[in-house]
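Appendix B. One record, verbatim.
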Amino acid sequence: MRLAFSKRKYPHIRKHFLAAVSRGWPRRLVLNRRGSDARRSRLLRGYAARASYDRDEYPPAVGRGKGRGLERGRHPRGWKADVRYVPSSENRSHGASLGAKLSRYCNGTRFPLRVPLTGAVNPALSGSVGTRGVGLEPTT
């Protein structure tokens, strides 16, 4: 599957994604729901909450803990990630879309993230476009 998201709807998420990848975090993630709450909690302990902002994490908690480059940190395994403050509404919308699109896939499914060059998700790249700008296409 491929996962893409809108540059126009999620500009801060996109900027964070590109910065994290440039710092060595992988684009190819592995769906790993088990332990995601513990990984997220451990990671965000050191980041104070800010009004109107959320702490965006890349790779997301459900996409780390297993796989090459995704096992950084112990107790729980893979808790480390890149964190950046982004507007709450953007982060929550993106998180809800990501969760909805990944809901039909099993743990262990590999998914690379893609950022379209234009403002919208390219339907040719992603078999379906979700209402929040996230599209998936199973890879063959």
